[in-house]
Amino acid sequence: MTSTPAATPAATAPLPVSSRGCPVLHGESFAANSPRVYRQLREQGPAGWAEIAPGVHALVVTGRRAALDMLNDPATYAKDARLWADLNEGKIPQDSPVLPLMAWRPSALYADGEVHARLRRVLDDCIARISPHRLREVTRRGALTLVAAVAERGEADMMSDFADTLPLLVFADLLGCTSEMATRMVEVCQVLISASPDAAQAAVDFAGLLFELIHLRRAQPGEDLTSWMLGHDAGLTDEEVLHQLYLTVGAGVIPTAAWVGWALHLLLRDDSYAGTLAAGTVSVRRALEKALWVRSPMANF
User: Fold this and answer.
1) Is the CB of residue 16 less than 8 Å from the CB of residue 40?
2) Which domains does the chain have, with CATH numbers?
3) pLDDT at 13
4) Average of per-residue pLDDT values in the chain
5) pLDDT > 90: what percent of the chain?
6) List of residues 6+ apart from 97 with CB closer than 8 A
7) pTM for this one?
8) Paired residues of 56 in beta bridges
């Protein structure tokens, strides 16, 4: 006979709700009970209200069909965040950790129609110019640097010391940052990723760094994303280039870091991986694939 493990307190405690009685999609309780919170959210139907940060409520789409309908109907569901009623009415705290990701910027993420098509073409064209061989070498070099630092200390937080940092090192190189700029970029973006109370200031600091980089690469073009965007025939302004770079880093770093982190968890802690990896019977690729299936690197956006 086998006994059923006792439920943990976190699995049985009542879930917190917001001032409007909605599920809470942030904080320690959400982190510890996210499957339960998502079930609570789905009980409202294909879309339901949730608090996504202190005092910030949003209608969250949970059904696949509803998501497809929304994404394919920009005339009804515009991506222009300047239409956000609560923000316009002063109901969103100016230091809210969600503003760096949700407030409007002149980038493809917040644009529709011809504006979106123009900005998206620049992104597609410039990203297509990245050499896979260069990307592989930059990633390998960054990983070895971080592993060497971990080995010297003898311990590490696998997210902040590796998974969060490696994509930032790669993007710093792809954007054409100097060594000093790369160091600053890692520091400010780690604060931005954390969604801490300092995230708003980190967003300002990161934009300032990108502005410096744009001026540097306009004067000294190189083989990098910044130079390619500045030279693209779409004729982007410096402000537009800045926000396409901001978007590229945000979209490339945050989900990649989560993906790497969960794959590392499988490789280091899951017996079906940790016990056989050294013998060569389980590949890193399989761990990465399982991570995508069982722990999406971006559960909501």
Assistant:
1) no
2) 13-77 (no CATH), 126-294 (1.10.630.10)
3) 79
4) 89
5) 65
6) 53, 195, 196, 197, 199, 200
7) 0.84
8) 53
